[in-house]
Amino acid sequence: MPSLDAARRRLRLSDAHIGVLGFLVEENQLPEELSQSRVELREAGLLDGDDKIVADLYPLVSTLMAPRVIARVEVTGPQGVTSNGAVIGDEFIFIHEAWPGATESEYVPAEPETLVWSLARMVDLHRDFTDEANGSEVITSTMGLFDQVIERMEAGEFEEPEAVAEATGTPLRLSEILAQLNCMWRITVVWQGSGEERSPGGLSVAALSVWDCGLEGYWLRELPAEPVSDGQVEASSDLRVRRTSAKELWRLITGLLPDGAQLSAAQPRAS
Description:
Blueprint lengths: L2 E3 L4 E5 H12 L8 H9 L14 H8 L3 E9 L2 E9 L4 E6 L5 E7 L4 H8 L15 E5 H12 L6 H8 L3 H7 L4 E9 L12 E9 L5 E6 L14 E7 L1 H11 L3 H5 L7
């Protein structure tokens, strides 16, 4: 059920609830499949009897309806995939985090100074206590071989890295680090403005993909290079990962966010 913590301005909403709010703001006909979600919003006191959105929802709804920057954080782990992120508007910033297996996410207001910290926390970026002497270590393979290793891991049968490498033809070192895999995460930031990467829709995109391999540390996936489009990666695509550190990842996350000049390029010029 949706809910509101008025004291801390926190909200719990599912994608369906967000969809209902969008239809109501745009004054469009609500699809039948969203009727139950509307009932839940009414019961939670987030809609009044006339389906008017309560004032406590205004900051979030106005931000979602006209975002300046959207950050998507996808974490893939033993419990599946969770989608988290941040939405930055002209007046407000909201971060949202999901719980594995739950349909609702928690939406919380944030300040610009805490945004990088919030994104880092979503991926559990933590101090790396392992030896970083081999910080320049690089492993190369192909995405097809990587997928074979992951499939064997998901089958639930423990195998020594040497056996996995021999069975799949994967580099032994790749099998060793994947044996310690905690999760894989990707952060993608999208905005309307100037940037190095431009999507077909005119949006600027910046992204990075990382493996958290526990005792084997953090590994930055350099190939296939982010951002990756649907259908772009094949079994024969080159895979290259590089050992990195939490300190470097903090810097890379910070670098994903557009600066003021990039954002201002999206604003209409005065005539």
